[in-house]
Amino acid sequence: MYKLTQSVSVIFASATISIGVSLSASAATFPDKPVHLIVPFSPGGGTDILARTIAPKLAEVLGQPVIIENKAGAGGNIGAARVVESKPDGYTLLFGSNTLSINASLYKTLSFDTIKDLDSVGLIATAPLVLVVNPSTGIKSVRELIDKSHANPGTLNWSTPGAGTPHHLAMALFNKKTGANLTQVQYKGGGPAITDLVGNHTQASVLTLASVASYIEAGRLTALGVATTNRTNLMPDVPTVAEAGVEGYSANLWYGLFVPAKTPAEIVNTLNAALNEALKSADLRETLRRQGYETQSGTPEQLHEMLVNDVESSGQTIADANIQTID
């Protein structure tokens, strides 16, 4: 029995060493074949468009094709699980966003641990969220919105692109901090939510600046404040919601690259360097600016810290706002 146990131990140890040597060898030549970028949402949506905008420049820097695969479903969880379950060799990437941190609390059960089962590569961009109202309300400021909701409880509706989205949590946080009495109306996507807001079927919302900038410029929506910590360069004359009187208010929408946990550090660093190099492109930065994104960059550690903090803050917002969790 001892000899059998000893033999099994030796075999297991040898296999472990072999895997380690194999990954180290792969890291030395990485990348030497196409890289697959998993987008956890449907083609044509904002996340997909952003991924397809960045992929060619990333491929150019890596020297290998970057193949986009859309794995939509369950609020992005299906695509994330696909990456978690893949080999940790750097050839399968997740184009993630802070829906990852929201889903960690929004869904009662997940097949993976958001923090432990994914390694961060680097931040890509942020999409500033903006608090907007229909001009027919006559509301010109954050303070006026709060006061009107208090004076006329239940008469103002706010639209959300869906339960548990960053936009939903941002508006729920606003209600929590201000005591605003706004009635939520849920839609299946940003398009319908914007259409009814412009048509005054709803009166307020927190949406991406990218999706509503043209309506603001045309006077069909009024921007009261951006949800970011600091003013955005994309619309510098619009104050932050915190500046406008809601102390401590901040909500964001960010995008970043992730790989399966236990991907060798050398590969993660190679991907991070390639991503940051791609994001230096003046043409790419200008394209993202026109689309309503602020280009970001940074280290894997910075993105990991952002993810951890967002998991905590999103969970708190979901609990405070009594947002129904999903089985």
Low-confidence stretches: 1-5, 7-12
State the CATH architecture of the largest domain: 3-Layer(aba) Sandwich
The shape, in one word, is globular
Side-by-side strand order of the widest sheet: 2-1-3-10-4-11
User: What's the number of extended β-strand segments?
Assistant: 11
What does this structure look like?
The protein has 327 residues and is an alpha/beta fold. It has two domains: 163 residues, D-Maltodextrin-Binding Protein, domain 2 (3-Layer(aba) Sandwich), CATH 3.40.190; 98 residues, D-Maltodextrin-Binding Protein, domain 2 (3-Layer(aba) Sandwich). 45% of the residues lie in helices and 18% in strands. The protein has eleven helices and eleven strands. The chain has a six-stranded mixed beta sheet, with helices on both faces. The chain has a five-stranded mixed beta sheet with strand order 7-6-8-5-9, with helices on both faces. β1, α2 and β2 form a beta-alpha-beta unit. α2 crosses α9, α4 crosses α11 and α6 crosses α11. The radius of gyration is 22 Å and the shape is globular. The termini are far apart.
